[in-house]
Each structure stands twice: as structure tokens, then as C-alpha cells.
């Protein structure tokens, strides 16, 4: 494995991590506010479809993005109504949202385009194109550092960079602002927030909608950035990998980035090498690489390495005591 | 000038409630309540559990909306629709169960909700300065950077008070503030409250402990069954009068109790030690015994190890030490220490909290009658199947015997009143003819008629030769039922008395942690000679 | 809070929820430009209007009964087993191993062995999440989701690398030995001299599913273990007070749940495909969630809900044929809405109905 191959794998890691980062941070906002969300997958899928469909229809990727965000946030709002206003079971609501997205996108997709659930292929202005940094030609020639600039950092779509920026922004929001303080508090002890004169419901709705927004970005990136169009169930478990990353990261933004990069790296390696043969050890099948994020999460959840403690009030609707 | 302000004060009390009424479904929690509290005073509100004190304060703090009635703050009609409005009106509340974020620092908790800026750093700095001022002014010292989960209960309560003061509260409501405090912490709290009232803060103290009312308040109101029956000057009343006003008739009749032959030691406990999940030792090597036909009362302020004692002996939490029933050792931890083994060895347990432990609220009454004893042959058809028909029949006869209303086994437990729920638990546990009964707060939240009935049933069981361990925070109950009393303080038995040879003030001293040297000496010598 | 009359709780509220789900689905059909009433007619006719349709309907229902019961049993212990999909997949592996490598003389011998294997494999797959929940407090929902994905990777690996016969392209196992083929409805009806169409895959497993409904009812409402499971589900603290071991309850309820999910593979793998395919479960594990919610975790309710989803699955296939604009995914949408209304938005209907009954009661008094 030479240096350029490593750079290429890392490059592909960045591309594959971006949707995970969006979805993972989305889950972070929601779960930090005390609303469990296993519907990240569904929201990403809805956004992927509607962003691609609208981009295909109008030729504008930005209009597509708007449509994707809207779809994702509508689903987030449904989750909010079910789990905040009607105090329903957040996990069941998440399951429902995943199916709703899976069924609706296929149904409407078939009805609109008659392509077996696909959208037409996107090109030009109807998808996000790679952004090339200035002077890649010349800087790229510098040994070691050059390729990092020209091949690894440069050449991604705008959404990848937004994903990376979202990490420190999330940290800052969470730990330096009033909104973040209250958000963290409401996920630990909503009564403290309520008796402090702050509305628990409003806070949680905002968190859930931010979750929808970020899932929307992740979904739009899948269909209009990474790929050139929507195909059925194209999220393929990314929402759940993001959930796994969130647990892996113990609900912290910085760790979330590392977890997503790690899972992205695993995927990049799996794609590039299929089955990895290690001398004197045997072959690691690609399926093992694909299952590794889930296995790692189980290990973390089992408390074998560290302990993942979710926000204390998570999963429970807030009901004022009598 | 002075006189005119005083007159103004008298004309417009700091808090005035007019005709507050609140119902939950068919239950009227507050009925047409009127109350005036003048500025700078400490006003006590007493009443039994369920009298409506907490509901009233929750309305004042905007947690609930009253069905009708008006609130005047400093003479102005104030519409308190939520906690935010209450804070704006200068009201602060220290809840019975603290509303703190456990993994936040003291500072973060103090500013939560009043950050006044999009960024939190200014508020944090501001709070740090103010906290150190308040600390010296009212002896409310607490480390501003400590996490709440690392603080003692007393310090956590200080944070609650600081939270209110940081919000510039002029009115401070404290709901049962001493329930979880040691006597020393409680006294410290009273000093703080007096300081605050001297500074012009108005304080409402909700409690059911008359000692506290007498010690710290200027005026006192009594609540009974949702109504505010009287308001008095504390200096012009006494605990007896308040107690009578609270229960609405002359204080609890003592149940007739003839002396019985006490038999051999039935329950023996040696060096019982309980350490909780946080590593705090809540019971510190306590030893006692109960003889056949004897009731040993465990008195003490709530939170001194009572719950842990019941749960250790009932097989709910593992403990260290030894436990013997009629001379036979029963493990307190590991294999064979669970609640089922305890029952199989003849230990029945009426828990402190019938709703969380004693009953499955969503089970029918008949299902609850077998609860915990569902392995017994009489409830089963064969190795696998339960005999539901038979359990129903047994339930019906027990319900009649214990005067449970309605006596219908097919009613869900949650649809019974508190007293009847308690009777279901008692019926189940007493009908097992236990060798040993451990019972916690048997009449908490139970109406007076049922109290006497329950007391009589416990006495009957004693007369039949069972050994009974009664844990209660109500001294009246201890005096009414027990033959001997042991006082729990800070996880230790601090003293032991024969009920007939002691009195409330002596036990009161023990409950406050003031040890009687001669008695401890004699206990030690007794042990040494054994 | 007084409880609602039983009939309202168990029948009226689920029916209203179902109606809401159908109404919204109907609006979707209108949006697509078709007549929802005609769509409904096609679904009902296609699924119940002929022995052929009924054969498919009950075949699907058999799957959903098993997965629905699986979710329901776990629900009674307040465990949300979202891993039915993975457990059924691994159960299918058990079934396949039994049917691939042993030369069965007659299905009647292979049947009980396969049942044991399917249940055992399914239960094994739920055992790890159950153990982690009971001993380490790892959230069962998350771990069972993860185990679904791990199961899928495992199946792909086994089929691609190990079970696939040499020289074959498709990642599926060899055909099972002939002696393990279960009698279909066509054959069973034939024994009694009656006629049933040949093509529907309905087979003897349906009877096993009905038996499972009865046994699970017996288990939950008549046995001591069932009593303990329900007690634990309502209140863990009270269960500990009563001497019920949480560890035991979590393990038993999840093992039974996983075993039931595994049994589904008897129907699909042994009864229908007669070989192990990569996706032998086809989402039935998730339909089980809807069936359990809809059926209020009662075996009879689960049975009825499973038949309802059978109707939708079979009718949906017919619908796609008759109304090409409305694809099969319509069923997934309906399923999602049923889960949403009966599970997550329960209070949307329950609270107003509760208030209505309180009013009616006070009027009577």
C-alpha cells in the first residue's frame, strides 16, 4: 500500500463519513434533549428522494436541497408531535417514520418517474459538484503534504465541508450558548428546566427540528452529492450506523466526528479491498468489515470498553407530576 | 413616614390568595382557599399528607393552573400561568424533590433559565460573584464548580435556595425542606431562613412537622382535606392544638393493646450493613432482635436508613451481616437472599411504598392477592399453571375480611383508593400467617378510619405470636403499636427504649441524634455480658 | 385515572386507529390519481375473494403471526424486541441446516426437528442482546437493531462463501432434501378429498402458527412464568419486591420472543422456498411490530392483525397489477401509519375517548 493509496482511501473516508456526521449530529441534538430517535434513517431517505426529485424536476440542486430539508423536517415534526405533544413511545415512532419514508419514497417515486422507484440521473447544476481548492496543481507536487491538500482536502462537494464545520458549531452551541445549556439540561432533568420557567416542549421541538434539518443535509448529500440521483432505500442502514456512532461517541460532538470517520474508513476499506487477506492470518471477509461498526457498538454498549451512558431523561415523555 | 409604610404593609400583604379552587378529575385538591402572608414573615402551612399543601404551592408557583380564584402579589393582581411568570413575580420555590441537573455544576444549575444572554459565559461569571456574596451574607457556602451529583443533600438544597435568590426572589416557598436533612442541617437551614426573613424576604414553609413550625415560623395556617381551616400566630398556639386542627378531631385514639407473653427471639439481626450504589454506607452495622408476640418500633427522621433496613430484610437489596429467623440463618446477599426466599422462610413484608413496590397497579385485585406468593401450592394447579379461579375465591374472602371497598377481585388495583390499596397489601401479607412481619409506614396517606383498622390488624397478628418490625416516621404510630422502640439515626441504632417507659421528648432527642450516654453504656455492658 | 371499559380499550380504540391509517392512505391514493374505494375493493377481492387469494393471504399471515407473537411476548416484559428480522434470519439458518444435510425419510420427522432448530437458532440470536440488557443495561432496542445488521452480514457471508453450491451464481443454498418438504394446503385438502389451488404457498405451518397463538396465550395468562413476566413488565421495582428475578424474566421473555421469530422461517424457508435465500424474512420481522401493537399484545389480537396484514400484502400485490400507479409500497405506508397511530400516537385517540367516557359516566351519575 503506497502513500497515494492511503490518501485515496482517506479521501473516500471523508466522502463516506459526511452523511454519517450529519446524521450523527442530528441524533445528538435530539437525544441530548431527551428524545430518542431511531428514525434518522427514514429522515435521510426522505430527504434523499425529495432533493433528487426536485433537483431533477427543476434542474436546480439548491431547490432540491430545500425540498429535501422540508421533507426531513416534516418527518421530524411528526416525531415531535408523537413524542412531545402526545407523549407517545419515541422508539415506536421512530420505527414508523422509517417505514413511512421507505414506503412513501418508493410509492411517489414510481408514480412520478416510472423508473422503478429511481429518479432520473442528475448532472450539471442539478447536483452538488466537487469544489477544487486553488493551486492544487502546484501545491499537489509538494511531497507528503501536497497530496493531502490536493487529493484529500480538495475536491469534495460543499456539503462535505459543511458537515465538517457542523462539528465545532455543534460543540459551541451545546457548551457555550444558552440554548445548549438548556438543551443539555432538558435531556437530563426536564423538571429543572420547567421549574426554571423554560418550556420543555418548545426546547425539545427545536432540538427535533434541528435533527430533521441535519438529517436532511445528510440525505441530500447522498442523492445529489455522493451519487447522481435517488435509488430505492439508498440510505442502506446509514442512519443506524450514525446511531451506532452516536453511542460510540457517548453523545459528544468531538467524539462523534472521530466515530463517523472511523466508520467511514471501515466502509472505504471494505469498498476498495472487498476481502482483505492478511499473511499468516487468513482472509477478513468484506461482510465482516460491513458488520464491524455494529459489532463495535455492541462492545461499547456492553461496557467492555468504557461505558456509554445516555442522557438521563432520554426516551421518557415529560409528564408533569400530579 | 415609618408608620405610613407600616400601614401600607398591613393593608397590602406580600401574598394574598383569594378563593383558590383546584380539582383533579373528581378529586378536589383545593377548596376556596384564602390566605394572607405579610412581608418579611415566615409563614408555615401544616397538614397531613394529601391535605392539599403541595397543590396550593404549585398553583402559586405556576406549575398548575387553579380552576378559580385570584393571586395578589404585593397588592397587585397577578396572573401566574407558568413558572416563568412566578419567577417574574419574585417567587422562588425549593421543591421537596430537588429540580437540579445532576451532571451540571452548581453555577450552571444556578443560571439555568436566567442566562440573560445568548452566550452563557457572562451569566456564569456574574453568578460566581453573586454566589460568593450570598454565601457570606446567609452562610450558604457551596463550591460553585462542584457537580451536583457529588454534593450532599444539604448542599444540594443550598443550591436550590441560591437558585431562587439568584433570580431575585422576594418570596421563597420551601416544600417539606427537612425531610431529607439531618437535624444539624435542618437547624442550619432554619438559621438561613431567619436571616432571609430579617432581610425582608417572605418565606412560606410547608411541613407536617409541628416542631419546625414552632421553631421558626411567625404565623401558621392549617390545611385539612383541601381546605384551609385556620390561620394563627405561632406564639399563640401549641403543637397539641395544631395537631388537633390537622386531623380534625382530637388526636388519634390509641388502639387497645393488652400485654402478651413475649416468647423466644424470632427475628435476629446482627451487624447489618448496607452500602448503596454510590458507595455510601446507609446502614452501619446495626443489631437488634424481635421476640415472638412483640412489636419493635423503628423510629427516626425519614432518610436515616429506614428504607434500606426494610429493603435489606425484605430481600430487595443485598446487605452484609447476619439475619436469623427462629435461630435459622437466612442469607442477606447472594444465593437465597432474594425476596422469594425471605417469604418462603416466613417473612412477610408490607413495603413503605405500596404503589411502587407493594402492588402491580395494572393487575386486578385478585392477581395482587397472589403477588409474591404466586409459587405457593394453594395458588397453583400444577407445576406450570396457576389456579386463577381459586385465587379469585381467596381474594374475595380476604377482601371481605379486610373490609376492602369495593370487595370485587376483578377491579384493577389502581382503581382503589389509597387506604384500600394498602389494605390489599396487608390482607395479602397478613393472611400468610408470617413468623415475622416487617412493615414500613403502614398508614401513610390512609384516612383515619382505615388507620385504626390497620393498627388493629397488626396488633392481632402480634397477639397471635408473630414478631413484628414496624418502621414509621410517625411517633404517634410508634407509641400506639410498639412494645419496644429503637431509634435510627444516620444509619445506626442510637438508642432503644421500652415504649411504656419513655416519652415523645426523650425519643425526640434521640431522633435528633443526641445520644444518651448512660443508655449506650448499658447496651454495651449488656452485650458484653451476653 | 380510572381505566376505560375493556371493550373500548381493546376494540374501539384500535379500530379508530386503523380507520385513521386507512383514511390517510386513502388520501395518498387520491393524490396518486386513483379511486381509494376501488383500491380497497381490489385489495379485499384479491386477498379474500378466492381460494387462491386466501391461500396467499394466510401464507403471509402465518409469517406475521410468528413475528407478531415474538414482539408481543417481549412487550409483556416491557422489552421492545426490534430484532425479529435478524432472529428470523438466523432461525432460517437453523431450518436450512436441518433440511440440507440430513436425508429425511418423511416430513413428519423433519418437521419437529426443524421447529426445534429454528426456535433454537432464533433464540440464540436474541440471547446476546437479552443478556446484555439484563446484566449490563445495554438498551435492548439498540442492540437488537445492531444484531439485525450483523445477522444480515452473516447470512450474506455464509451464502456467498459457504452454503452456495459450487458453480452456482446466485447466493443461495442448494435445494433442500425432498423428505423435508412440508405439505401445502393443496395436499392437505387433498387428503380429505377436497380441492385447493396448487400455487398458493400456504402450508401446514399455518396450523403451527395457530397452535403457537394458543400456547402463548396459555403461557402469558395462565402460567406462573407468564404472571411473573407481566408483573415485571408493569413494574420492575414491584417485581423485585415480590422476589421475581429481572434477569430471569428478561432472558426467558427474550428467548421465547427470539424463538418465535425464528419459527417464521419454517413457513418461508421450509414450507415455501425449500432453500435458503439471502432475504428470507422480507420485512416480516417489522410487520410483527405493527401486528403486536395493533393486536394489543394479545395472541388473538395478534392473529387478527396478522390476517389483516396478510390481506394487505396479498391485496397489495393484486393492486399493483390492477392499478400500476399504486405500487406495492402502498402497503409499507399503511403499515407505517398503523404503527404510528396505534403505537406512537396512541394518546391522540385515547385521551379524547377517555374524556368522552368520563363525561358519559358523570352524566349517568
Architecture blueprint of SSEs:
The complex is a heterotrimer of chains A (322), B (530) and C (365).
Chain A: H1 3-32, H2 40-58, H3 61-85, H4 90-113, H5 136-139, H6 145-153, H7 158-176, H8 178-188, H9 190-195, H10 200-226, H11 238-248, H12 253-273, E1 276-278, E2 282-284, H13 286-301
Antiparallel strand pairs in A: 1-2
Helix pairs in contact in A: 1-6, 1-7, 1-10, 1-11, 1-12, 2-3, 2-4, 2-10, 2-11, 3-4, 3-10, 7-8, 7-12, 8-10, 11-12, 11-13, 12-13
Chain B: H1 2-11, E1 15-24, E2 27-37, E3 42-46, H2 53-60, E4 68-73, E5 76-77, H3 83-88, E6 91-94, H4 106-111, H5 121-138, H6 153-166, E7 171-175, H7 183-198, E8 202-207, H8 210-216, E9 219-224, E10 227-233, H9 239-247, E11 265-275, E12 281-291, E13 295-299, H10 306-313, E14 320-325, E15 328-330, H11 339-344, E16 347-350, H12 354-358, H13 365-369, H14 388-401, H15 418-430, E17 436-440, H16 448-463, E18 467-471, H17 475-481, E19 484-489, E20 492-498, H18 504-511, H19 517-529
Parallel strand pairs in B: 3-8, 3-9, 6-7, 7-8, 13-18, 13-19, 16-17, 17-18
Antiparallel strand pairs in B: 1-2, 1-4, 4-5, 9-10, 11-12, 11-14, 14-15, 19-20
Chain C: H1 6-32, H2 36-48, H3 51-76, H4 84-101, H5 107-136, H6 140-163, H7 185-191, H8 205-222, H9 224-234, H10 236-241, H11 246-273, H12 284-294, H13 299-322, H14 329-344, H15 346-364
Helix pairs in contact in C: 1-14, 1-15, 2-3, 2-13, 3-8, 3-11, 3-12, 3-13, 4-5, 4-6, 4-11, 4-12, 5-6, 5-11, 8-9, 8-13, 9-11, 12-13, 12-14, 13-14, 14-15
Describe the fold and architecture.
The complex is a heterotrimer of chains A (322), B (530) and C (365). Chain A is mostly helical and 322 residues long. Chain A is built from 13 helices and 2 strands. Chain B has helices spanning 2-11, 53-60, 83-88, 106-111, 121-138, 153-166, 183-198, 210-216, 239-247, 306-313, 339-344, 354-358, 365-369, 388-401, 418-430, 448-463, 475-481, 504-511, 517-529; strands at residues 15-24, 27-37, 42-46, 68-73, 76-77, 91-94, 171-175, 202-207, 219-224, 227-233, 265-275, 281-291, 295-299, 320-325, 328-330, 347-350, 436-440, 467-471, 484-489, 492-498. In chain B, the strands form 4 sheets. In chain B, strands 6-7-8-3-9-10 form a 6-stranded mixed beta sheet, sandwiched between helices. Chain B has a 6-stranded mixed beta sheet with strand order 16-17-18-13-19-20, sandwiched between helices. Chain B is built from 19 helices and 20 strands. Chain B has 3 domains: 4-247, P-loop containing nucleotide triphosphate hydrolases (Rossmann fold); 263-346 and 438-530, 3-Layer(aba) Sandwich (Rossmann fold); 359-433, no CATH class. In chain B, strand 19 (484-489) and strand 20 form a beta hairpin. Chain C is mainly alpha-helical and 365 residues long. Chain C has one domain: ABC transporter involved in vitamin B12 uptake, BtuC (Orthogonal Bundle). Chain C has helices at residues 6-32, 36-48, 51-76, 84-101, 107-136, 140-163, 185-191, 205-222, 224-234, 236-241, 246-273, 284-294, 299-322, 329-344, 346-364. Chains in contact: A-B, A-C, B-C. The interface between A and C is large, with 45 and 47 residues.
